[in-house]
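Bumping with the actual sequence this time:
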Amino acid sequence: MNKQSSTRRLVENEMLTRTNNIKAGQALAAMSTIISSVYFNCECSQATCLEKVRLTVATYTKLHLLGNRFVIKPGHETSAIESVEVRAPKYWVVQKFSLSAHPDK
């Protein structure tokens, strides 16, 4: 596998996890007055990562206003494909180098 294919696969791993998180967040948004926070899957590039990030649905949604951002556990960044934009105590937000601002559109 060449470097371009490897980089593409890392980004695809993150996109798949984020897509699943968005679907879960949408389903839980109606219950946000009852549930204060939710465990989202870490959106890092590692296909085997099982770590969770606890956020409110509103915070998770806000962090994804730019489509090239992903929420990960601290230290799960892959410097070849992203830079850390936000360093919160329990999560980091990374920005992809190769994605447009709204890849889902």
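The tokens above came from a reply further down the thread. The first strand starts at residue 38 and ends at 41.
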